[in-house]
Design a protein that fits this description.
single chain, alpha/beta, two-stranded antiparallel sheet
Length: 286
């Protein structure tokens, strides 16, 4: 685990909304992991993107619908089951910390009840999916994609729990060094949790874009400021950090579409990630 201040995970990670729509991709097994694949028109793998899910995993409809949008933008998009069948049930979405407007209507008792779910639900899950278990799976999958014929550039897109691993993939690797695996050409991280400051950010060497909500209980204003200052000091690393006003944890993947402001924020975060990949996954094969 990287050294520094570690920002934990709260009931925010269990909040959000389920979106309507039918994913159009297909299921396959890649490198021993079940995987949802959304292919661009023509099926080119030149620009490939690996999604690293939140705690709701690769079968969560929202993340598959989002992968379809990346495919429409020209990216060969993978959502591997890095949780190996151990994602949290979608039923938690409406049980714990709903969107900001509903949060403000909760009684003290209701908030206390919701908060009690966190240690009993997330504690054991986080132990099962600690970095020593999850990072080798992610590194190995990205290495498999990199060796797939037709692949040139690879991006990582992560949300919540998975956003931290997208940041770690932006550390990059020296592919000429024997035994080195993982590492991407560009990364996008939306509302990361469990990040270590400065440990997770000091080694970043690849283009990194982040989407952060100003009401995210996992990244308070002080922590966001530390990340912004740290990245600003990395003059040789291309990066951007966009703040989304009044958005809670999970907004880029689980926004409440009944709120025009929340849906707009999610749409903008989607464009942010796609535009970042369009810019930094440019291939010499195009």
């Amino acid at each position: 685990m990287s050294a520094g201040q570690n920002i934990g995970m709260s009931s925010c990670c269990l909040s959000g909304a389920l979106h309507e729509g039918k994913p159009t991709g297909r299921i396959d097994n890649i490198g021993g992991l079940d995987c949802y694949i959304a292919e661009p028109r023509g099926g080119s793998k030149t620009k490939s993107v690996v999604f690293i899910s939140d705690i709701f995993g690769w079968e969560f409809p929202n993340i598959r619908l989002l992968a379809d949008q990346y495919a429409l933008a020209g990216f060969y998009t993978y959502i591997p089951d890095f949780l190996e069948g151990d994602s949290l049930p979608v039923s938690f979405l409406q049980n714990v910390e709903p969107p900001l407007k509903k949060q403000q209507e909760l009684t003290v008792t209701e908030k206390a009840t919701n908060a009690a779910v966190v240690p009993t639900t997330l504690g054991p899950w986080l132990i099962r999916h600690r970095e020593a278990v999850s990072k080798p799976l992610i590194d190995g999958f990205i290495n498999t994609v990199r060796m797939t014929p037709g692949t040139d550039k690879i991006g990582a897109v992560g949300f919540c729990w998975g956003a931290r691993y997208a940041i770690l993939q932006a550390h990059g690797v020296d592919l000429a060094t024997p035994g080195e695996i993982g590492g991407v050409d560009s990364a996008f991280a939306a509302h990361p949790s469990l990040v270590t400051v400065p440990g997770d950010f000091d080694p970043v060497s690849r283009p990194l874009s982040m989407a952060l909500g100003t009401k995210d209980s996992l990244l308070d204003e002080g922590t966001r400021g530390k990340i912004i200052d740290l990245m600003a000091g990395k003059k040789d690393v291309v990066h951007e950090i966009r703040l989304y006003e009044d958005q809670v944890h999970g907004f880029a993947l689980r926004s409440d579409w009944s709120s025009g402001k929340d849906k707009k924020a999610m749409d903008e975060a989607t464009r942010q990630g796609i535009e970042w990949m369009e810019k930094y996954l440019k291939s010499g094969k195009e």
